[in-house]
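Consider the tokenized backbone below.
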């Protein structure tokens, strides 16, 4: 069998077409990612996950973005609906409860729902720091407003996911919280200097640099590499590896 390529593919709908089966079998992607367009109900979703793996002839990873809040591909009536993470944290603190315990349970329950349909990788937790200027597309998806709080809660979420047999994907390396535009629509530019980023934005990722998988943020740090965004910058990937110390995939 051909060795898997270092790429993740999606599919068009609720079931695989014959063309998709042939393509995936020939291309041998490392894994797959699912979106809302791929999800109807638990039986359909489980069948699709099984078909994706059958297409490549192995137990390929299947990923999803199931953060809770605005980013959850699986939702009611078949799966739980979740408040935005920042709202959950604020409520826990206001009620004198342990936000770390709440975030662990969130991860553990999400993992149980994912594992039940065969999904084994979740694109969470976020280790971005929410600030006053953080763009609304991201702000309430964050876990807190300080590096220590974010690192603590992101660790709890990761532990909850792994406790349920689901691998976490930490995002958005090396820190998306200062971005003032939606990176799906425009390229955010973060003008902060390296020493400022080191003690703030990078700090939660350094504390979580042992996690197995990571997702880069698509944004430009001109003080660090003006030539291009993190996703295409060898210099920024080297920073993630060397300065932040992230050793995962």
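A designed sequence for it:
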């Amino acid at each position: 069998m051909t060795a898997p390529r270092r790429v993740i593919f999606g599919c068009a709908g609720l079931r695989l077409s014959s063309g998709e089966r042939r393509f995936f079998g020939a291309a041998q992607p490392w894994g797959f990612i699912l979106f809302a367009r791929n999800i109807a109900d638990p039986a359909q979703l489980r069948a699709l996950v099984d078909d994706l793996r059958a297409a490549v002839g192995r137990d390929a990873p299947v990923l999803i973005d199931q953060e809770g809040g605005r980013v959850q591909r699986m939702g009611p009536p078949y799966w739980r609906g979740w408040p935005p993470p920042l709202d959950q944290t604020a409520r826990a603190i206001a009620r004198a409860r342990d936000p770390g315990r709440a975030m662990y349970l969130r991860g553990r329950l999400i993992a149980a729902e994912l594992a039940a349909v065969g999904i084994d990788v979740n694109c969470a937790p976020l280790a971005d720091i929410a600030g006053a200027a953080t763009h609304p597309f991201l702000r309430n998806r964050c876990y807190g407003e300080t590096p220590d709080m974010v690192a603590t809660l992101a660790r709890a979420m990761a532990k909850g996911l792994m406790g349920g047999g689901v691998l976490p994907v930490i995002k958005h390396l090396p820190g998306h919280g200062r971005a003032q535009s939606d990176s799906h629509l425009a390229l955010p530019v973060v003008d902060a200097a390296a020493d400022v980023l080191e003690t703030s934005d990078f700090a939660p990722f350094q504390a979580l640099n042992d996690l197995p998988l990571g997702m880069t943020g698509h944004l430009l740090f001109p003080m660090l590499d003006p030539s291009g965004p993190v996703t295409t910058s060898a210099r920024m990937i080297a920073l993630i590896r060397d300065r932040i110390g992230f050793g995962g995939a």
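The chain has eight helices and eight strands.
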